[in-house]
Design a protein that fits this description.
about 220 residues, Rossmann fold, 5-stranded parallel beta sheet, two-stranded antiparallel ribbon, 12 helices
């Protein structure tokens, strides 16, 4: 069955993790990198669902780490956390635009913190988001991947059957959840790997491919 729609994760698919902002985050906390990463991730689901705001998340982080932050440090943490996830992957952004131009419907399905979404909506650097047929943000819906409902919701809004939809995410758990609903899934690592997986599975071979040099100016 041909692919008529592609759903993109945002973080580490359409975006990259900015190393400078990441380094600043770790430095502000005063923790070693391993400890920072161990504490950083478990609290993200509540943040993705907008159950806590940015200051609330970093106060939780401080409590888990047994440290404290000043108000100024919390503001800097929220700011750099946003910047860390605001760095784009131009090859994938360009490919998404090329797919829409070729008649493939596209969507973004992201576990998204409200502070980053606010930043994106206020930045001209993210005007390209208007080119997608559907934008699904966890913080606005109160549900997040890998909840099956958020995949079904996105497919319904996209107007494409699950079996005709390809889902790309860097997290294998999220991809498996999509596949359980009949959606085609690929775990994303980089554009080269994606090209190989698309070719191996015979998906989207009649449209421009991710990483094609001429796509860099699409958006």
């Amino acid at each position: 069955m041909p692919i008529r729609g592609v759903i993109f994760d945002y973080g580490l698919v359409l975006s990259r993790r900015d190393p400078i902002a990441h380094e600043k985050l770790v430095k502000i906390t005063g923790l070693d990198l391993d400890t920072f990463e161990r504490i950083y991730w478990p609290g993200r689901p509540s943040y993705d669902l907008a159950q806590v705001d940015g200051p609330g998340y970093w106060k939780w982080f401080a409590s888990e780490a047994g440290i404290s932050f000043t108000q100024q440090q919390i503001e800097a943490l929220v700011h750099n956390d946003v910047l860390m996830w605001a760095a784009l992957n131009p090859s994938m952004v360009a490919w998404a635009g090329a797919l829409e131009h070729a008649g493939i419907r596209t969507a973004v399905l992201s576990n998204m913190i409200p502070d980053l979404l606010r930043y994106m909506r206020n930045s001209r650097d993210f005007a390209w988001l208007s080119g997608f047929s559907q934008l699904t943000w966890s913080c606005e819906l109160g549900m997040a991947k890998p909840d099956p409902e958020i995949y079904t919701y996105t497919c319904d809004k996209l107007g494409v059957a699950a079996a005709e939809t390809l889902f790309l995410d860097d997290n294998p758990k999220n991809v498996r959840a999509a596949e359980a609903l009949g959606i085609q899934g690929i775990t994303f690592t980089n554009t080269e790997q994606l090209r190989e997986d698309l070719a191996r599975r015979g998906f989207l071979q009649n449209v421009p491919q991710p990483g094609d040099a001429e796509l860099e100016q699409v958006r």
